[in-house]
Amino acid sequence: MSYEVSGESKGNEKNLPVKDKDKCTEEKDDKNAIIAGLQQLREQQRNIVVELARVEDDKREHERVIQVLKKMEGDRKCFRMVGTTLVQHEIKTVLPILESTLQNVSPFLNSMKDNLIEKGKELQEYTEKHKIRYVTEKELREESERNMKK
Q1: What letter does residue 15 receive in the DSSP assignment?
Q2: d(Cα 119, Cα 107) in Å, to the nearest integer?
Q3: What is the count of structural domains for the chain?
């Protein structure tokens, strides 16, 4: 993915006095910092999406396990992974724990979805503030062809 920060100087560094070259270098550094900030925000957004997917998978797994355990007798043995240890329980003791855990996951999921929405808004505001637009590969190729003709 390519980004373009509006007002970008293209090849203006050639044959400029030293002061102007320094100014162009500073502008490039500023634009690089802006793009780095954008990439950081996008990475944070991706991390939230990955974590959200992981928690949703855990929730579905808990729901399936609860559904299966409810059909079984309460005094049957079952095993539960606690950290890295497999612990033996009876279904009647594990079921309330799993149901409680499932109830606690829903508010956490809602919170994560809110965080994702907020991060999206923050990203949108950042792109608008710095006048960043996404450049498609086609536009990038066309720009390269125009530069080669010059």
Answers
A1: T
A2: 18
A3: 1
Q: Rounded to a whole number, what is the largest CA-CA distance in the chain?
A: 86
d(C-alpha 77, C-alpha 85), whole Å: 16
The pLDDT tens digits along the chain (150 residues) read: 666 666 544 444 444 454 555 666 777 778 889 989 999 999 999 999 999 999 999 999 999 999 999 999 999 999 988 899 999 999 999 999 999 999 999 999 999 999 999 999 999 999 999 988 888 888 888 888 888 887
DSSP string, 93-141: HHHHHHHHHHHHHHHHHHHHHHHHHHHHHHHHHHHHHTTEEEEPHHHHH
* Local structure of residue 80 (DSSP, 8 states): E
Give residue 69's domain range.
2-73+112-141
Coil, helix or strand at residue 36: helix
Does residue 136 lie within any of the structural domains?
Answer: yes
Q: Does residue 25 lie within any of the structural domains?
A: yes
Statement: the pTM of the whole predicted model exceeds 0.85: no
